[in-house]
Amino acid sequence: MTIDFSRQLHYVWALLPEIILCVSGMVILVVGVSGRYRHAHMAAGGSIESKSGDDLGWLALLGLLGAAMANAWLYSVTEVGESSMIAVDRFRLFSNWIFLLAAVLGILISFAYVYRQRLQAGEFYALILFATAGMMFMVGARDLIVVFLGLEVMSIAVYTLTAFNRRDRKSAEGGLKYFLLGAFSTGFLLYGIALVYGATGSTNVAVIGEAISNGEASMGLLSPAVALLTIGFAFKVSAIPFHMWTPDVYEGAPAPVTAWMSAAVKAAAFVAFLRVFMVGFDAIYALWYPILWWLAAITMVGANLIALVQTNIKRMLAYSSIAHTGYLLVAIAAANETAAAGMLFYLLVYTLMNMGAFAIVMSVSHHSEERLYIDDYVGFGWSQPLLGVFLTVFLLSLAGFPGTGGFMGKIYLLLGAAESDLWILSVILVLTTVVSYWYYLRVAWVMWMKDPETEGQHNRIIVPFPMRFALLASVGLILYVGIFPSAALEFARTSIEGLGTFGGGLIGQGP
Amino acid sequence: MTALLDSIGYSGWVLHTLIWMPILGIGLVLWADEQRAKYVAFWWSAVVLILSLGLWWAFDPTVGGIQMESATPWIKSWGVSYALGIDGISLFMVMLTTFSASISILASFNYIQNRQRPFYALMLMLEAGVVGVFLATDLFLFYVFFELTLVPMYFIVGIWGGARRIYAAIKFFLYTALGSLLMLVGILYLVYRAKTLLGAPTFAYAELLQVPLSGTEQLWLFGAFALAFSVKIPVFPLHTWLPDAHVEAPTSGSVILAAVLLKIGTYGFLRFLLPLFPVAAQHPVVVNTMLVLAVIGIIYTACVAAVQSDAKKLVAYTSVAHMGFVVLGIFALNVNGLQGGLVVMISHGISTGALFLLLGMLSERRHTREIEEFGGIARVAPWFATAFVVTALASIGLPGTSGFVGEFLVLLGAFEDHKGLALTATLGVILSAYYMLPMVQRIFFNPLEKQENREIRDLSKREIVILAPLCALMIWIGWNPTPLLERMEPSVRAVIERVEGATIEARARVEDEVNEGQIVDDGQE
């Protein structure tokens, strides 16, 4: 089918995945307040085995399946006419896969948590779907206004989800912090958009790019605009020094929300970041490249060093996620096709490994917010060998060890950096990776090598069926991508084609 | 024999089998029940060993380059292939690996009492990884195997090791990883240069050899690679992880570590460092630094070894000294030196491996490794003492043992251009007698005073099966090293020719440039 953007109705087809998600989100909301679900959250016990609210989760998965089918269908579509708002390119569709995957895994692992914490299942799953739709808007946007709208739809849903566990102080604290800082950073972003409009007379990314390369833009406005946009995005991807909210939010948010948002929100922000900077600001690469260079360097060094001293595993994974932000910023600083493809690939792998690790953290803490210290993992490996091996695989993958997807991702990022001659940044990347080995391996040694003082403290771990499925899928995919990466690499590489003209004149701009 | 091997197409499949058999074995071991796991692991590794023995005949000693090559594309868009091959340098390393893997599995039968299945699975994984390192002819594949050897060793030391096992395991891991990740950046730089030259990236060793590099580039890359390998060897002053890892590791871990893991470093020197960066490898500053570090390593660690009270730690330090000889031989940059280095690698693998095994057997009997605790054991366990003395003499390098051949050739090689250093290194040979013989005396020959020592059993049948081939090899190589030397010579010569060829080429290039009146700046970005 061809999508003709001169016809209003065809926008519906171009946005089909988003629309399906929004509709199914609303259906879940309505079902959630009706009949037997209304009082489900007040039910006594909140045991892991209880099943209330389960079917709402399956309904959400059904919605995601629909969106996935629509996303797959969009591959067969050809664009006709000028679209100023929405892109139907493989870049967007690949990113959509990441969000869909993250949402599916996030919902699969949250079943037990939702009843155990007596969360309102209807709102919970609906908000995940809304946030996912917002992410999709963000990465499909060719216009900064749509980027902003998508960002807000995503962010507001995520703020709510962070504060979702009303009975937990930390959850409320995290939600408020996230909201205030998030709103603040959005202000930067919006101001940046306004200045870009002032400089170039457009909010369309492609038009901005042309205006800049034709020399029609006013540099006096453009420089602060780029700075403000960088700050806005840096907040969202949680780059140091704009990361302050991350550890508290990740620690306070309900565990499945942390798992999901640490992967999906980051991915959405990065993809939009990449599109805006590489397509829109390609011609002024020399202007923003040093900022990104330093941002990447500081983020990698800082996050990895702070992660070393964490004792709470959720905070440790929060800093680890900031560290991964640093690695991904290298791709943006490199700003070439290899780096862009590398970033997509890395985000996909990161979603799998990070959510997998969080899923195991959740099962160790009995689907609640207890036993979150790394020392609680003593003897875990030997009493739950399979889960122990899985967690080890996730950690090795996060550390970027051969045989796992994380390694291939890191190589891809390094190859991208090599193409732009970012050798010093590459060296910083690998050196900080060595630092990261320490805190990833610490969990491994605590769970395999330390002898527990009391036996049997991990005997009651329950992994419900949906989570088991999510874990198996993540481990399987990580190892598959780590050993036979060709198909996934090729997929990421072809997803960059048609993104726009970039990478010209970049080679040789070493530090 | 050759005809028999040809008839089964041996050289076509053997290299793959040597990597994949142990990996298959992991599954078998995990599937077997706890008490049988060790037999499964041992017999499986014995089959691998027997298969690898055929290499001795199937290997063509007249060819200097890599043989039995095969390559399958693995990651096409990056130019990575699953490429294996063998030459006179890796041949012995592979055989040493399969040999010491089965020996050390056999030696852990009593030592490892709990969590047996994961232990033997990790041992087989380690074997596969190390064999892969020696066979890979693609730098990506090499790097993957190089890193993959870390994980099983980390867990072997960390789970089944002594009291400070976690510290030792993490130290070992971080040291090695630091070097290897910098090497990874170096590899990617090479690949990137290959890409600008050939239009497509490639990780194939043979193609990367063709990439012309300026002198400055070579020095940087040499640094990155040399750091990775020097940590692994280990070269003084990067050796501090080694005593910890050796002392804390279970016996079989120490054996594998000493016998093959350290050799990965020196193998990397011979296979990658010298051929890829020949100009840097001959740079006088580089050569002198490496030689001086090697000699300091020999002398310093010999002195440190002499004052150790823990027998295992003493042997661990001797490893550093022996590897110093290998580095000395390699950077002598002549055929004698390189061959000597290779023989020391083999001999050290056998003799130090055997020493660790013997000390393991001793501490299984007495639950201590303090030299002070022993004395007069030769009277109650004569066979034990015999094996120990033979091994210790081979380790010192007594003529007639394998150690002598290697060290003699190394010194001969080093003497050609670096007389002072060679003379100083000779001191190391004397020092090795100074630390090794008192230990032997205090453990085996002093008066038999302690009651516990009277009850020490002599070697069991299983232990004799372990030690007999080791002792036999030490003596056989000592008396008849020719079969080894003739197999390694063409490959060693190829390395030397590559290095020397680069000098001539570089000189010619400089002359051309001078003649044309334009000196191209070597400076990097």
Question: What is the N-to-C order of secondary-structure elements of chain B (H for helix, E for strand)?
Answer: HHHHEEHHHHHHHHHHHHHHHHHHHH
Extended strand count of chain B: 2
Q: What series of H and E elements makes up the topology of chain A?
A: EHHHEHHHHHHHHHHHHHHHHH
Number of discrete helical segments of chain A: 20
Unreliable spans of chain B:
518-525
- Biggest β-sheet of chain A: count, sense, barrel? 2 strands, parallel
Name the descriptors.
heterodimer, A: 511 residues, mainly alpha, two-stranded parallel ribbon, 2 strands, 1% strand, disordered C terminus, B: 525 residues, two-stranded antiparallel sheet, 24 helices, globular
What topology does this entry show?
The complex is a heterodimer of chains A (511) and B (525).
Chain A: E1 2-4, H1 10-14, H2 16-32, H3 54-74, E2 78-80, H4 90-116, H5 121-140, H6 144-162, H7 169-200, H8 205-213, H9 219-237, H10 245-252, H11 255-280, H12 285-308, H13 313-334, H14 337-364, H15 380-383, H16 385-399, H17 405-419, H18 423-448, H19 465-483, H20 486-494
Parallel strand pairs in A: 1-2
Chain B: H1 2-7, H2 10-31, H3 37-53, H4 55-58, E1 67-75, E2 80-86, H5 90-107, H6 116-135, H7 139-148, H8 150-160, H9 165-198, H10 205-208, H11 215-232, H12 241-248, H13 251-276, H14 278-282, H15 284-306, H16 311-331, H17 335-366, H18 377-380, H19 382-396, H20 402-417, H21 419-445, H22 451-454, H23 461-479, H24 482-516
Antiparallel strand pairs in B: 1-2
